[in-house]
Description:
Blueprint: H1 5-15, H2 35-48, H3 50-60, H4 67-79
Helix pairs in contact: 2-3, 2-4, 3-4
Amino acid sequence: MNIDSSLIKQIGRALGREASASEKGSVIKLSEFTEADVKEFRELHKKVGGVITISFIRFKLKGIMPLNKVVSYYSDVVILGLPPESWVE
């Protein structure tokens, strides 16, 4: 998924680090996100909300992931706190 460079900068500011276009497609499937990734998603959720967090998750995924799967992952792992390795695609 493509996101605007201004949104990438906003995400970086919210995370307190430089987010870059090189992160695009860095993960093949949702179950491969690490605890560190999930921690960032949770921080991003707190600071900018769900829509931008879901956009960032989709941005980091390689290929096209159906929105309903990403929203389910976001709900289960980011919001409810399930361990990322326990999430089944």
